[in-house]
Design goal:
This protein is α/β, with parallel strands linked by helices. The protein has one domain: P-loop containing nucleotide triphosphate hydrolases (Rossmann fold), CATH 3.40.50.300. It has twelve helices and ten strands. The strands form two sheets. A six-stranded mixed beta sheet has the order 6-7-8-3-9-10, sandwiched between helices. It is globular.
């Protein structure tokens, strides 16, 4: 056991001293859309994820919370098929994705929104939206995207370089919804944004959730996470050390902030 993992398990409840099954029942769970079972991942010989098991239901927001280096982004990349040095199972609606490429996983309905948002700066907002192919019958038509994200309609002829950080985040989310993604992987969507924009991103996530889209969210902002998520997995040194429902997560906000050093 590494020193950091030992620390995570000895700093009380906020550090994940027990798993969700040790002293209390796990939070109520829906029939899963995404299931990750026994996932481990490596960079070269360095193991960064160890036997991770999580799930996300349709219309559910689940966060991955942990210190920098805990393996949160690697987990998202592994689910998307962008990190291939893995073992374990990843399924979407019961279909095994283990041998599928990132492109194939996108066609199956997984949408990736990285922390840098991946906006094509030389293209307009409208061109960014139209560039990816439609991969699912539930894809949002452009009219629906613009109705849901009116600021993107206003800036549809603007190049990506002229968008604010919050507008870029909205564009990145809108792009995968227009493709037909049913499960969104969001990496730090609130990072670097003004509080009023973070509030709007939260509203968008809740509205998307209400339409049956699942969201797996990496988030360091504990207060923001508690306003959008149903459940939370606490990671330390590449392992899930605790699984919390949102009521418990909110009740322990101060402990979690201390543990995360925030």
């Amino acid at each position: 056991m590494t020193d950091d993992t030992a620390s995570a398990r000895s700093t009380g409840r906020a550090a994940g001293a027990t798993t969700a099954t040790a002293n209390a029942p796990a939070p109520e769970r829906r029939s899963p859309m995404l299931e990750v079972a026994g996932l481990s991942a490596w960079y070269g010989e360095a193991r960064v994820l160890s036997d991770v098991t999580i799930d996300v239901g349709p219309g559910e927001v689940v966060t991955l919370v942990g210190r920098n280096g805990a393996g949160k982004t690697t987990l998202l990349r592994s689910v998307m098929g962008l990190h291939r040095q893995t073992e374990g199972a990843v399924t979407l609606d019961g279909a095994d994705l283990g041998k599928r490429s990132a492109d194939a996983r996108a066609r199956a309905g997984i949408g990736w929104v990285p922390d840098d948002r991946g906006i094509y700066a030389s293209l307009t907002v409208g061109e960014n939206l139209l560039l990816p192919p439609v991969v699912h019958p539930d894809a949002w038509p452009l009219e629906r995207v613009y109705e849901f994200f009116p600021v993107l309609h206003e800036r549809r002829d603007f190049p990506g370089t002229r968008l604010s950080g919050g507008e870029q985040q909205m564009l990145a989310m809108a792009r995968v919804l227009r493709m037909g993604s049913r499960l969104l992987l969001l990496d730090e969507p609130s990072e670097g944004l003004a509080p009023v924009i973070v509030q709007r991103i939260g509203e968008i996530i809740r509205e998307i959730k209400g339409q049956g889209v699942g969201v797996l969210l990496v988030e360091q902002n504990v207060k923001f996470a508690s306003t959008v998520a149903d459940r939370h997995y606490l990671l330390a040194q590449g392992q899930v050390v605790e699984h919390l429902g949102n009521d418990d997560f909110r009740a322990r906000e101060g402990e979690l902030l201390t543990y995360l050093g925030m």
